[in-house]
Amino acid sequence: MTAKRDAPIAIWAVSDGRAGIEGQVLGLAEAVARLRPAEVSVKRIAWRGGTGALPWQVHPLPRLSLSPRSGIAPPWPDLWIAAGRATLPLSIRMRRWSRGRSFITQVQDPRIDPARFDLVIPPRHDGLTGPNVLPITGSPHGVTPDKLAEARTRFAGLLEPLSRPRVAVLIGGASKAFELSSAAAAALAREIGQSVTEAGGSLMMTFSRRTPMPARTLMTARLRDLPGTIWDDEAENPYFGYLAWADHILVTEDSTNMATQAAATGKPVYVLAMEGGSAKFQRLHAELEAMEAARPFAGMLEDWTYTPLAETERAAAEIIRRLDLRGTAA
User: Fold this and answer.
1) Digitized pLDDT (tens) for each residue of the chain, 330 residues in all
2) Burial (0-12, 13-18, 19+ Cβ within 10 Å), 330
3) Cα(209)–Cα(198) distance, rounded to whole angstroms?
4) Element (H or E) spanning 41, and its range?
5) CB atoms within 10 A of CB 277
6) Residue 26: how many CA atoms within 13 Å on its side-chain side?
7) Inter-residue contact 282 to 190 (CB < 8 Å)
8) Which residues are CB-neighbours of 203 under 8 A, at least 6 positions away?
9) Looking at CB atoms within 10 Å, which of 77, 209, 308, 314 has the fewest?
10) Alpha helices, DSSP H only, in the chain?
């Protein structure tokens, strides 16, 4: 539905609910809302039975296959921001359902013709280009100076007493391109422990949902005696607090999200090598290195400065620009 002038634009942030995917669409939606009055709604797509595994082309009536909790029903939003394979059967039809009034933004490379959407925002390392494609470094996210300031205050009691340099360590895990075996985890723990000890600093370590439990258990056991804190999966994950209080950030090379978020802080970012690899991730890390945001980790902690990565804000500004051209944004 086309927004009335000065009325908040309705934004739907649509994903399958996985934290890494939802964080991208919600972070971008919030960035748009910082530029224009908006009402952001989170939509988590769930498919009945096995229909979620079907290719997008064979979903003739996808709304009938959705779980009721998905909440995909009119009135349609002014701005649809979606990511992930689960959203494609809906994204490619939303133009028709909304009679062209919803602006359809697809985050990540949809691996179908970008002309099916109003705007596609893939990571630059995917190599996708086109007139309605805006490649960005990494992925959109919700790390902002305000959120970091809030997290710095909220986690001050836990993190301020830690000795400096405070070293945030963000551990990912298994993916199509990478593995984290117990042997690799032991090597990482040894390298991390040595660098923190030599610097006289403290450790702030957290894990992703993809971290294999044997690797997580081993790294926790090897590093628990260092000054600092290791997230135990019981209390609130202090991820934003770690980013806010860190003097250095170490992130495993398997995660576009974590590398991009770390580079948004302006803190020195080191990339931890894992088993496996891919040309796409090599291109991402080369981009970050060219921006002076990240370096491969070689065991030493050094200080340097750079302009914090602000690709989410750039993408949001481009959405607003295109909405204004259509007369959709207030």
Assistant:
1) 444 456 899 999 999 999 999 999 999 999 999 999 999 999 999 888 766 666 666 666 778 888 888 999 999 999 999 999 999 999 999 999 999 999 999 999 999 999 999 999 999 999 999 999 999 999 999 999 999 999 999 999 999 999 999 999 999 998 889 999 999 999 999 999 999 999 999 999 999 989 999 999 999 999 999 999 999 888 888 999 999 999 999 999 999 999 999 999 999 999 999 999 899 999 999 999 999 999 999 999 999 999 999 999 999 999 999 999 987 554
2) middle
3) 30
4) strand 38-44
5) 13
6) 15
7) no
8) 167, 169, 192, 193, 196, 223, 226, 227, 228, 229, 230
9) 209
10) 19-35, 62-65, 88-97, 145-154, 156-159, 182-199, 213-223, 239-245, 256-263, 279-290, 311-326
Q: Which domains does the chain have, with CATH numbers?
A: 9-137+311-326 (3.40.50.2300), 145-296 (3.40.50.2000)
Alpha-carbon span 255 to 240, nearest angstrom:
16
> Which of the 8 DSSP states describes residue 242?
H
Inter-residue long-range contacts of 93-100, CB under 8 Å, 24+ positions, other chains counted: 93/62, 98/1
Q: Given its phi and psi angles, is residue 31 left (phi above 0), alpha (psi -120 to 50 degrees) or beta?
A: alpha
